[in-house]
C-alpha cells in the first residue's frame, strides 16, 4: 500500500501542528475487513469493542455499550457506531495499513481502530489526546475538524466525553474511499456517516508528562534503580519549620532532573516504549540458539513479526523488545536491524548473511521466546 503524501512537506507543515485532508491518500483503496468480520470480532471476549448510539431514549441522547456483543438487531439500522480497538493485532490484513506510516517512530504507534457506522452514526464532537490518521473505507462520512482552541467538555454518559459548544471549523468535507484525514492531538472533530461506512484510525500516542513520570517512577521502584535520596542543601536560613524554602525546592527538582538525565532512566524509558499494547504470545517450549540453523534450512520457512510487537533501538547499539533489553553483540547488529525493519513475514531466504553466525541465531531465539517474532513453515500446495 502506498500513501500519496509528500512526507517532508507534511512533517514540516502539518504533523502535530494542524489538521489536513489528503484526498485519495490511498488510490483505489480496498477495504481490509468486512463489516461482518468486524462485528464477529466484537463478539470475542478478548476484543476491546464498544457501540456508541445517539438519538436514544436516554436523558442525554447518548448511550455507550461495551462488548463482547451477542447480537446487533436491537441497535436498529441507524444512529450507531461500532468501534473495535487494535484490529491490527487480530487481522493481519489490517496490520498492513501500518507500513505506509512507518515514516513516524514505531514507538509512537498505538493501534489501528476500525469502526463501522450505520447511517447518521457517529461518536459526537470530541477531542482526542493522540495523533490520528483516519482512512475512509466503504461509504461516505462527513467530517468537521478544527484547530486547537479553548473548548468546554462534558460527559453526557459514561465513557463518552464530548465538546459542549460548537467549534471553529477548519475542514468540512465528505470523505470517500481512500481519503485520509490527519488530526493532531487536541483538535476537535466530529464525523457523521452519510451512509453505512467503514473507517480505519491509525493512532499515535502522545503521552503526557504525568504519564511518563508515573511510568518511570513505577518501573524504577520495581527494578530498584534511581535510588539516590534527597539531602538538605547547605543553608544557614532559620525559616519556620512549616516552610518549604526555595533552596529545598531547588534541591528536590535537581534530584529529579539528575534522575531523568541518567543512563538508568534512558534504559527504563526504552523498556517502557518497547512494551506491546497487549501481551505477546510466547512459544509453549523455549527455542534454543542450537535449533535455529535447522529451522532456517527448511524450505518455505518464514519469520513473522507478531502483531503489536515493538523492536526498538537506543543509542545505535542497544535493542529492546517487549520491555526487555536484548543482548546484541556487535556481530549481530545487522541481524537486529533487519528484524526491526521487518513488518509482516520474511522468507528465511531473504534474511541477511549475519543470520549464519551464532550471535545472530542466539538473538533470533531470544526474540522468538519473547513472543515478538515467530517461525512457521508454509505448506506447499499439492
UniProtKB/TrEMBL annotation:
Span of domain JmjC: 93-221
Pfam family, one: WHD_ROXA
Essential cofactor(s): Fe(2+)
Gene3D superfamilies xref list: 50S ribosomal protein L16 arginine hydroxylase, Chain A, Domain 2, Cupin
Keywords, in A-Z order: Dioxygenase, Iron, Metal-binding, Oxidoreductase
Domain of life of the organism encoding this protein: Bacteria
Protein's name in the database: Cupin
Organism of derivation: Idiomarina piscisalsi
Amino acid at each position: 500500500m502506498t500513501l500519496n503524501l509528500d512526507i517532508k512537506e507534511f512533517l514540516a507543515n502539518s504533523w502535530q501542528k494542524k489538521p489536513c485532508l489528503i484526498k485519495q491518500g490511498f488510490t483505489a483503496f480496498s477495504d481490509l475487513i468486512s463489516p461482518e468480520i468486524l462485528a464477529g470480532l466484537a463478539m470475542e471476549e478478548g476484543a476491546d469493542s464498544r457501540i456508541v448510539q445517539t438519538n436514544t431514549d436516554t436523558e442525554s441522547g447518548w448511550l455507550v455499550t461495551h462488548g463482547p456483543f451477542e447480537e446487533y438487531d436491537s441497535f436498529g439500522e441507524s444512529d450507531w457506531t461500532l468501534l473495535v480497538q487494535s484490529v491490527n493485532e487480530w487481522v493481519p490484513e489490517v496490520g498492513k495499513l501500518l507500513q505506509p506510516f512507518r515514516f513516524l517512530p514505531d514507538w509512537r504507534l498505538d493501534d489501528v481502530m476500525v469502526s463501522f457506522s450505520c447511517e447518521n452514526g457517529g461518536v459526537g464532537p470530541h477531542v482526542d489526546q493522540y495523533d490520528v490518521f483516519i482512512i475512509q473505507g466503504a461509504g461516505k462520512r462527513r467530517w468537521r475538524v478544527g484547530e486547537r482552541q479553548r473548548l468546554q467538555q462534558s460527559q453526557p454518559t459514561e465513557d463518552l466525553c464530548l465538546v459542549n459548544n460548537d467549534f471553529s471549523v477548519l475542514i468540512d468535507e465528505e470523505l470517500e474511499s481512500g481519503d485520509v484525514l490527519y488530526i493532531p492531538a487536541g483538535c476537535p472533530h466530529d464525523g457523521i456517516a452519510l451512509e453505512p461506512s467503514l473507517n480505519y484510525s491509525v493512532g499515535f500516542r502522545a503521552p503526557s508528562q504525568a504519564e511518563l513520570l508515573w511510568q518511570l517512577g513505577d518501573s524504577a521502584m520495581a527494578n530498584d534503580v534511581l535510588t539516590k535520596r534527597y539531602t538538605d542543601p547547605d543553608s544557614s536560613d532559620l525559616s519556620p519549620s512549616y516552610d518549604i524554602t526555595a533552596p529545598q525546592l531547588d534541591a528536590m527538582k535537581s534530584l529529579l532532573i539528575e534522575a531523568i538525565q541518567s543512563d538508568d532512566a534512558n534504559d527504563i524509558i526504552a523498556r517502557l516504549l518497547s512494551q506491546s499494547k497487549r501481551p505477546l504470545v510466547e512459544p509453549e517450549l523455549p527455542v534454543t540458539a542450537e535449533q535455529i540453523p535447522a529451522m532456517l534450512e527448511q524450505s518455505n520457512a518464514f519469520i513473522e513479526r507478531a502483531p503489536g510487537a515493538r523492536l526498538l533501538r537506543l543509542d545505535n547499539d542497544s535493542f529492546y523488545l517487549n520491555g526487555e533489553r536484548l543482548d546484541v553483540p556487535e556481530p549481530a547488529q545487522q541481524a537486529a536491524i533487519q528484524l526491526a525493519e521487518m513488518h509482516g513475514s520474511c522468507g528465511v531466504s531473504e534474511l541477511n548473511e549475519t543470520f549464519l553466525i551464532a550471535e545472530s541465531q542466539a538473538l533470533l531465539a531470544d526474540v522468538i521466546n519473547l513472543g515478538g517474532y515467530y517461525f512457521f513453515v508454509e505448506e506447499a500446495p499439492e
